[in-house]
Write a structure and sequence with these properties.
Elements lengths: L1 H19 L2 E7 L4 H12 L2 E7 L3 H8 L10 E4 L2 E4 L4 H9 L6 E3 L19 E6 L5 E7 L1
Parallel strand pairs: 1-2, 4-5
Antiparallel strand pairs: 1-3, 3-4, 5-6, 6-7
Length: about 140
């Protein structure tokens, strides 16, 4: 009976640690960008573990990761092999990771005011989160007002 209790307790501990483990984010950004740091803080506040890599040539990083120039923003992140470009809300990333289908990642092109890391008082732009595929095809993932 003692072995059964030990096995059950061990199983419970392993399951709970995997459920509550933070998802690791590798964030690529320019060493001079403050809004990227704000987005990283947003991700940390939402339970992500963020590792930052600073690069002088972000265009080369984006090209290597397969980010279409039409989708470019200031920073690029990789989570579980998927690519996330720009100021994407953590909730959209969580939803995407739960069911990525055959997409390569998500992007918020440009730097819209009011998106995570781009907060500035009451100013908020309407913006779209776009899902993209390896072959360049795009799909609307979400719209924020």
């Amino acid at each position: 009976m003692k072995n059964v209790k030990t096995l059950a307790l061990t199983s419970l501990m392993l399951m709970s640690s995997s459920v509550f483990a933070a998802t690791e984010v590798t964030s690529y950004k320019s060493p001079y960008c403050g809004c990227c740091t704000e987005w990283e803080d947003h991700m940390k506040d939402n339970g992500y573990d963020v590792n930052t890599e600073k690069h002088e040539d972000m265009a080369a990083v984006k090209e290597k990761l397969g980010v279409d120039p039409r989708l470019a923003s200031c920073h690029t992140a990789v989570i579980d092999g998927y690519v996330f470009e720009g100021h994407i809300p953590a909730d959209d990333i969580k939803k995407f990771l739960a069911d990525p289908k055959d997409y390569k990642g998500l992007a918020v092109p440009g730097m819209p005011m009011g998106s995570p890391g781009m907060e500035y008082g009451d100013k908020k732009d309407k913006y779209q989160v776009v899902a993209f595929k390896e072959n360049g095809k795009l799909a609307l993932f979400n719209t924020h007002n």
